Amino acid sequence: MIFIDSSKCTGCGQCTRVCPFTVLRLNQEGKAENTGKKCIACMHCAAICPAEAITYDSRPAVAEKTQPLPEDCSTTVKQLIYQRRSYRRFLKKKVPGDILRAALDAAENAPSAKNEHPVRWIILESEEIRQCIMDWILEYCRENQVSMELISEYANGNNPVMGENAVIIIGICRRNSINPAQDTAIALTSAELLLQAEGIGTCWGGYLTRFLNLIPECRMVLEIPEGYEVYGTLLAGYPDRQNYRYLPARKKAEIKII
Ligand SMILES: Cc1cc2nc3c(=O)[nH]c(=O)nc-3n(C[C@H](O)[C@H](O)[C@H](O)COP(=O)(O)O)c2cc1C
Ligand code: SF4
Ligand code: SF4
């Protein structure tokens, strides 16, 4: 629960203006107070408070101090967004665990419906388990006559499901989370940009996400708990080729202004 130290509060009211659910208000003494309404623990009030008057009972309400962004930051972000590409073939070189952790820690900073942050992560490194999963997927396709292109691609040495030598980041959420699909997508997008900024190639695993949910053996080997579902997967690794020389042509955004 949010606690306001009234001896520190100057009554500037900034916390009340950033609170998304009017949990905070200024009282008759001109001090901020907690109304007791449902709080989503977004910590915006503590992050903006100039008097460091706000704490949260069981965990710290703020992390590091924000730093002014460097002047060329918008250029860098724009470059990163435009130059991000999907990579599918990787070197047999392990992506360091601290880089993966840093990307997923940063992903916790992404927007999340009601600040729920429902995504839990599984990092699949084991070559043996990846191969088992791939075999089950091919068997599933053959038996159910679905995504038959995967069978011929795989026979030709191309794997659109798992790429080549990828470490696989798997995002799972409880099915009854508020907005699991979008929360996972935004978190993975943030992680992807951070990884690509570190020189790690990435590719979304749409096929993989679908089949992990469809095939019980996959769920079992990944120890996905009851009530959870895979909402996104990202293949990652050191790309086996140089950076692209050009940006690929893309359609222009369709926009209607009303
Ligand atoms: C939700 C989603 C699912 C995707 N699934 C796959 C996939 O299963 N296999 C694959 O090779 N690429 C997959 N991709 C990558 C797209 O093919 C790729 O983003 C698109 O071709 C554009 O290329 P770019 O990312 O380099 O701009 C997926 C992308 C998204 C956003
Ligand atoms: S932001 Fe801090 S100082 Fe300002 S009203 Fe809220 S608690 Fe008080
Ligand atoms: S655009 Fe080129 S790289 Fe992309 S699918 Fe077609 S042939 Fe392959």
UniProtKB/TrEMBL annotation:
Alphabetical UniProt keywords: Iron, Iron-sulfur, Metal-binding, Oxidoreductase
Gene Ontology molecular function terms on file: iron-sulfur cluster binding; metal ion binding; oxidoreductase activity
Entry keyword annotation includes Metal-binding: yes
Q: Which residues form the 4Fe-4S ferredoxin-type domain?
A: 1-29, 30-59
Record carries keyword Iron:
yes
One Pfam family per UniProt? Fer4_10
Family in the record: Belongs to the nitroreductase family.
Protein name per its UniProtKB record? 4Fe-4S dicluster domain-containing protein
Q: Could you read off the lineage of the organism from its UniProt record?
A: Bacteria, Bacillati, Bacillota, Clostridia, Lachnospirales
